[in-house]
Design a protein that fits this description.
Layout (H helix, E strand, L loop, with lengths): L5 H4 L2 H21 L3 H27 L5 H24 L5 H23 L8 H18 L9 H34 L1
Helix pairs in contact: 2-3, 2-4, 3-6, 4-5, 4-6, 5-7, 6-7
Length: about 190
């Protein structure tokens, strides 16, 4: 496989993904300021970043601009934004450190597993558990970014419940990746 062409790398879907990565320092800065107005701005920016995750994949398929770089960057951007927000939420006392550690370790392990699989010529695509994991993580982080109170809606309670659920689903999803990789790897021998 030869080097990637410039037009393949710098296409609209990949630029949207790179903008999502670029939003991380802004999000962290907004949360660091600890003012409710900045936290609302962070929640809105995080929501837009989540929507951009849907948009870049849709556009890549629709425009026939699916690239190797995009397939690598898109899930990496998700992991980077979730991990950075979890660290900030732990710092703010809005998320439990154990949940953040489980989620971040799962993401690192699965990323490493995918690299090993790719080196073996195997593909371990995401399944509905992985998609549910991402959706739950995004929901939990969004709710936990929002400042209290939000009328009668207890943001911290529902955000924490979503985070615990996301942690369990993340763990199960990670186990499923390893089981699927093992089956593929053993079937290749």
């Amino acid at each position: 496989m030869g080097p990637m062409k410039r037009e393949q790398v710098f296409n609209l879907p990949n630029l949207i993904t790179l903008l999502r990565v670029g939003s991380i320092p802004l999000l962290m800065g907004m949360l660091y300021l600890k003012e409710p107005g900045w936290h609302w701005a962070a929640a809105i920016l995080f929501f837009v970043a989540g929507l951009s995750d849907l948009a870049d994949g849709f556009l890549a398929r629709r425009m026939k601009k699916v690239t190797v770089l995009g397939q690598f960057l898109d899930p990496l951007a998700d992991k980077m934004i979730i991990a950075s927000m979890l660290v900030m939420l732990v710092m703010l006392g809005r998320a439990e450190a154990w949940a953040a550690v489980v989620i971040i370790c799962r993401e690192v392990a699965v990323t490493g597993l995918r690299a090993v699989a790719a080196a073996q010529g195997l593909a371990v695509p995401s399944d509905r558990w992985g998609k549910a994991k991402t959706a739950l993580q995004m929901l939990a982080v969004l709710l936990l970014i929002m400042p209290e109170p939000l009328g009668a809606f207890n943001v911290q309670y529902w955000g924490t419940l979503s985070l615990w659920t996301a942690t369990v689903v993340s763990f199960v999803s990670g186990l499923r990746y390893f089981v699927r990789f093992n089956r593929l790897y053993m079937g290749q021998s």
